[in-house]
Write a structure and sequence with these properties.
This protein is mostly helical. The protein is built from ten helices and no strands. The protein is 56% helix and 0% strand. The termini are far apart. The mean pLDDT is 85.
Length: 235
């Protein structure tokens, strides 16, 4: 440590906080209309919905808001800040169910709505693994774990069940969204015909109805998979 001329050690500057959720929002001069985090997030979600992750840049976001990049940076420091805020807004669309007594029903209601939110905003799925400390994310994670605790989960089993459900809903929604974004609306049917055209090579896939939308829907498969996970509850 160095000593300055006054004989005192210099004051240490606090370390920079990396997460947008751990920094206070800056108070800046008002604009007409005033620029705020909420306006920034609304515009970012619009860009992400329309153009995906690659379509969101700080420059394009400033243009969408009709402000300068300098004005934008008063409120958010990086694109990562914007993404964290946008993901939390999407979680705000996931309704918090009223507890009905059966913990499984509470989990089902939450997870189904979570999947629906990701399907409306498929770009969000790739960001779920980021450290998420937003109020909407934390409130829904708290609800999920509290329901699992009522179901008898605790300790490591609670951590495993939470991660299993999160990975299940994100993976399912991401897969479904990818299918839906394909340029050819008949791509899934063509994939099924490719399998059944050679039943000797794929006898099990042919018999099981793999990729056969006529046999069961994504909703049915998702709900039955969710039931299978919930069946692992402690007895």
């Amino acid at each position: 440590m160095t000593i300055n001329r006054s004989g005192r050690a210099p004051r240490e500057e606090p370390a920079a906080v990396s997460s947008v959720w751990l920094r206070a929002e800056s108070a800046r001069p008002r604009r007409t209309p005033p620029l705020s985090r909420q306006r920034i997030v609304d515009a970012a979600v619009t860009l992400l919905d329309g153009h995906g992750m690659d379509g969101l840049t700080m420059r394009r976001l400033a243009q969408q808001l009709d402000v300068t990049s300098t004005a934008l940076y008063w409120h958010v420091k990086t694109k990562d800040d914007v993404l964290d805020l946008a993901v939390d807004q999407i979680f705000g669309e996931v309704r918090l169910p009223h507890e009905v007594g059966d913990w499984r029903d509470d989990v089902r209601a939450l997870v189904r709505d979570w999947r629906a939110a990701i399907l409306r905003h498929p770009w969000a799925a790739s960001l779920i693994g980021r450290p998420m400390l937003g109020p909407n994310v934390l409130a829904r994670t708290e609800f999920l774990q509290s329901a699992l605790v009522r179901g008898g989960f605790s300790g490591r089993r609670l951590a495993v069940a939470t991660r299993l459900l999160a990975n299940y809903v994100v993976g399912a929604a991401l897969t479904e969204a990818t299918w839906r974004r394909t340029a050819d609306p008949h791509a899934r049917g063509e994939a099924r015909r490719h399998i059944t055209a050679d039943p000797a090579a794929y006898p099990t896939l042919t018999a099981s109805g793999h990729l056969d939308d006529a046999r069961w829907s994504d909703d049915e498969l998702f709900d039955q998979g969710l039931d299978a996970i919930l069946a692992t509850a402690p007895r």
